[in-house]
Amino acid sequence: MELDKMDENDWKYHGEGNKSLVVSHVQHPRVLRLLKYPAEDSENPPQTAEQAYRQIQNIVDFSSNVMSSLLGEKFIHSGEVVKLPLEFVRQLSIKVQHQRPAWRCDKVMDIYSGCALCLPNLTSPALHQPTHTPPLCIEIKPKCGFLPSPKHVSKDIKTKVCRYCMHQHYKVANGKWKRRSFYCPLDLFSGNRQRMHFAIKHLIEEPQNNFKVFKGGQCIYSSKEGSDESPDMNSLLHHLRPYFLHANNRMNCHVTCKAVLNDFIQVLVNALLSSGGGDGGVVADRQAEGRSFCEASIFNKERIRHGSRGLPTDSVLFRILQTQMLDTLDIEGLYPLYRQVEQHLQDFPKERTRLQIEGPYNEAFLEKLQKCPAEDDGSVEYAVAKVHQYRVAMTAKDCSIMVALVPSSEEEEDNENLSSQRQLRDFRPPAFSYSASILDLDPKPFDSIPRQLRLDQKIVTCYLRTGGALP
Ligand code: ATP
Ligand code: ZN
Ligand code: MG
Ligand code: MG
Q1: What is the residue-averaged pLDDT of the chain?
Q2: Per-residue model confidence (pLDDT) at position 416
Q3: What DSSP string describes 343-409?
Q4: ipTM for the assembly
Q5: How does DSSP assign 46-87, residue by residue?
Q6: What is the rounded CA–CA span in Å between residue 222 and residue 213?
Q7: Which of 43, 274, 289, 410 is deepest in the core (most CB within 10 A)?
């Protein structure tokens, strides 16, 4: 990429989250991720260009030095900071503005710093050859996959109903979404195929901001916030059908749609349980079986035909769950330690650097959180290690998985399918090669912790008042 010859016509709107806006190159498989900030501040940016550069460098460091070691290098692409011509950024911001969803426009794209994060485009994997069927990429934002331990929480309900399911009631009560999703992360992270299938089915039915499908790099399925309409499932099925034709020799169309959807979900479950390269991997038996069922999930436990075998230890879901579980104290148990650190920093401001509160996110930071004393010895080191662990867990609760499904090329299939096996083919799921990546690995700010506590209280109160009482 020649940074001095940037042309906005080579880039197009790709998507956005709460913190950043992403544009993709029209030819090369890469994206630029630009910062966003509140529209009220559009005239005077909240930080200088140097601070923006630092912030993005911190994201790269956090991803490559901390998260990559916890989640597994094979899943992570940290990218690099780039400095772009301001005129290019301004033109780009004008160009993409009309494609942005209205509900995201309370924030504006940063056009002042000229800094961005350059990443590989994970929705157009390089292994794809343009002449063949385009790859399908499925983005899942799984959220927190376990229940907190009863030791640290003040409300019993938190040990029975998962955070995501409680949060759904809060979001519907506050008008963020019109309908509640019946997706439950504990089902997805269970490692039990039936529960995972069930979870993904509900992600498809009510994707909110947890599920998107891309075909050949274009988003073909997602939710519109605050909208009454459900996303167009028929259109999704229309896109999926050619990929799952094998299963299509059935009589009536209704069954066929169902079959396509089932095959799609099954392939996705396989990809999520696969090792993402390398060998098979040991299956982790979940010791904490009691903490892996959510009472709000509408999955009927009696339907389980095979016991939960847990997740293979080298699967993307296992690695994410392990990292999420670094939150051992829950926000309620952590908050007093946060206050202790805060007090310490007030008394000794220079300690901020030594304790690496705002980074740098290097090996020493990782070591601080990994070498945490087992018991609270009252030291500030213990408190800081727990706060660092909590922040890392927060990032793992907020990241997304991108699963890329690349259809095996036709020649390959013809070669491997001798005529005797050909008939079997109709009963086999279609052949894909799959890979998984993890994206959105920004460090969560130290001072966001009090906000986390307040939000937690609001969600639990709301659930006890409204949701808990509903069937
Ligand atoms: P959130 O609100 O979830 O925290 P965010 O503002 O931090 O989101 P991202 O999730 O990193 O932003 O990016 C927004 C969207 O852009 C993603 O959901 C994804 O669809 C797309 N995206 C981000 N990075 C890539 C990438 N490397 N390749 C392809 N698409 C990407
Ligand atoms: Zn749940
Ligand atoms: Mg995101
Ligand atoms: Mg994010």
Answers
A1: 88
A2: 46
A3: HHHHH-TTHHHHTTBTB--SHHHHHHHHT--SS--S-HHHHHHHHHHHHHHHHHHH-EEEEEEEEPP
A4: 0.99
A5: SS-HHHHHHHHHHHHHIIIIIIHHHH-GGGB---EEEE--HH
A6: 7
A7: 274
Residues with CB under 5 A from ligand 3 (ion): 17, 440
For domain 3-120, give the CATH number: 3.30.200.110
Q: How many residues can be counted in the chain?
A: 471
Q: Which of 443, 466, 400, 347 is nearest to 66 (CA)?
A: 443
Q: For the chain, what are the domain ranges? A: 3-120, 127-471
* 17 CA → ligand 1 middle, Å: 6
**Residue 334 near residue 153 (C-beta atoms within 8 A):** no
pLDDT tens digits, one per residue of 233-255: 999 999 999 888 754 454 555 55
Tokens of 119: 């990443």
Ligand 1 centre to CA of 421 (Å) is: 42
- What is the mean pLDDT of the segment spanning 379-398? 98
Decide if pLDDT at 418 tops 50.
no
Give me ligand 3 centre to Cα 454, in Å.
22
Q: How far apart are CA 252 and CA 132, in angstroms?
A: 29
211: CA distance to ligand 4 center in Å? Answer: 14
